[in-house]
Amino acid sequence: MNLSNESYELKINYQENTINPEKIFSTMSQLICNMKELDNLLINSFPVSIKTDVVLENIEVGSLKARFRTVLEAIPDELLADFSFTKLIGHFSVKAKHKIIEHLSKKDTIENKAHIENIKNDLQQLAKQNLQRNISIPQKELLLNLSKISTTMQEIGNQNTAIYISSSGSTAINKNFHLSISQIEELLIQEVKTIKSDIVLQVKKPDYLGSSMWEFYYENHVIHVKIKDTNWLKKFQDGEIDLRPGDSLNAKVEIEMLIDENGTSIKENYMLLKVNKILKKYIGEQISFF
């Protein structure tokens, strides 16, 4: 049966007598979730708010192969009269997902900012060709979706393959593609800001022996801090300073903020430069290190 413009297929070719066959079905399940998330990202990158879902149209035997169609739910009133848009947006989503899979098939990672811009530009061109509208895809969300696909494909096994099929053709999903969270952070950085400030950090997990990161509570969440006050650190690790989980440090800290294109902090790195005081949890005692 030929595919309609609004439908696509996911197919997994697997080796007979595969060990751990549950991984085949798990991979298919995760790929379906990946495609649903891409649908929501792509369609809601237009200046509209539309809820989408995926409908299973068919399953074939022989290999694990299923056909899907994206459906629109909760369409805003202003779009109900625009029949051409609501009809064609499903076609756009199928082609856009195919374009993304094609990009992933050519490289094993996103190498630089120009690479992700090329993907976004191709999607922008598709939107103009199919819907005569501009699209603004959030770069962070797109990268996170690609990272999820890479995580899914790590489970498929060396002898098995996954394929995305649409009216545009079929493309194997690159199981060697990998995109880590640290890579995403590097790709998103537009600016680095550094500030120094005296702040209070509550100890969660100190490092009693080495020079690894300490865990502190700060502003209601856990942060990891590199201790650069080596004299204080040596005294602590030699047992000269009594500091326990729950105690706090009043300290001068350098905070490095990684800023994205929207001026939002992606990540913050903390370095403790100087311990000023220890604030004991139970007795309120303050020990100064001036």
Q: Explain this structure to me?
A:
- By secondary structure, the protein is α+β, with helices and mostly antiparallel strands.
- It has 2 domains: 7-186, no CATH class; 190-288, OB fold (Dihydrolipoamide Acetyltransferase, E2P).
- The protein contains 7 helices and 11 strands.
- A hairpin with a 3-residue loop joins strand 2 (51-60) and strand 3 (64-73).
Give a quick rundown of the structure.
By secondary structure, this protein is an alpha+beta fold.
Task: Please outline the helices and strands.
Layout: E1 7-13, H1 22-43, E2 51-60, E3 64-73, H2 77-80, H3 83-106, H4 113-131, H5 139-153, E4 161-166, E5 169-172, H6 181-188, E6 191-205, E7 214-218, E8 221-227, H7 230-237, E9 248-259, E10 265-279, E11 286-288
Parallel strand pairs: 8-10
Antiparallel strand pairs: 1-3, 1-4, 2-3, 4-5, 6-7, 6-9, 7-8, 9-10, 10-11
Helix pairs in contact: 1-3, 1-5, 3-4
Q: What count of domains describes the coordinates?
A: 2
Overall spatial form? elongated
Low-confidence stretches: none
Structure annotation, total helices: 7
From the N-terminal CA to the C-terminal CA, the straight-line distance is 79 Å
Which structural class do the helices and strands define?
Answer: alpha+beta
Strand order of the largest sheet: 2-3-1-4-5
Beta-strand content bin = 25-35%
H/E series, N to C?
EHEEHHHHEEHEEEHEEE
Mean pLDDT over the residues? 86
How many β-strand stretches?
11
Task: Report the helical percentage.
Answer: 25-40%
